[in-house]
Amino acid sequence: MDAATIALLILAYLTGSISSAVIVCRIMNLPDPRDFGSNNPGATNVLRLGGKKAAVFTLIGDILKAVIPILIGYALELHNRNLGWVGFMAFIGHLYPLYFSFKGGKGMATYFGVLVALSPVLLFYGLITWMITAFFTRYSSLASLLTGIAVSAFGFYIDKKYFFPLFAMSLILVWRHRSNIKNLWQGTERKLTDKKT
């Protein structure tokens, strides 16, 4: 692995560490999402806190912080395998942000950002899985879990060059959603349609 690749991996982590949720909430004079609702600085929690506009800005920010370093990787003509790990590092930055005491979100939007830049085909399957699950169950967490699993499965058969970083991200998604899994099992998980409290 050359110096340019290592530098880009570090840049991806630093870019991923930018918390779109916290920044959007500060700009829009909303409470800190880390102290509200699920305490998760992600688009779903911001949706409950500040509505659709704030959630959309958060979502776009979380997607772009994965897309930008991967696009730089394309410009540097990085190997496909390394591009996948650049996306992985942006994802890790979102989960464990350097600038916010390593307390980040659960990673779904940034995961989608990785797919946006790496594989439109896998992005399509991921979006379909998320939207169908969310539409019928109204659980964002369940939609995220099933999307990570589905994309890994599709990736193994359709686009193997990114399989290992995507599979690693899907495992981490499951780990980060472990409290949601418990809530789903107990029937206490909050739905997308729940009002803010």
C-alpha Rg (nearest Å): 16 Å
Through-space gap between termini: 48 Å
Q: Could you tell me the mean pLDDT? A: 90
Strand content: under 5%
Q: What class do helices, strands and sheet pairing give?
A: mainly alpha
**Number of helix segments?**
10
Shape: globular
Structure in words:
- With 197 residues, this protein is mostly helical.
- Helix content is 72%, strand content 0%.
Provide key terms for this protein.
197 residues; mainly alpha; 72% helix
Strand and helix layout:
Elements: H1 3-16, H2 20-27, H3 43-50, H4 52-75, H5 80-95, H6 108-118, H7 120-137, H8 140-158, H9 163-176, H10 178-186
Helix pairs in contact: 1-4, 1-5, 2-4, 3-4, 4-5, 4-6, 5-6, 5-9, 6-7, 7-8, 8-9
Describe what is shown at a glance.
The protein is an all-alpha fold and 197 residues long. It is built from 10 helices and no strands.
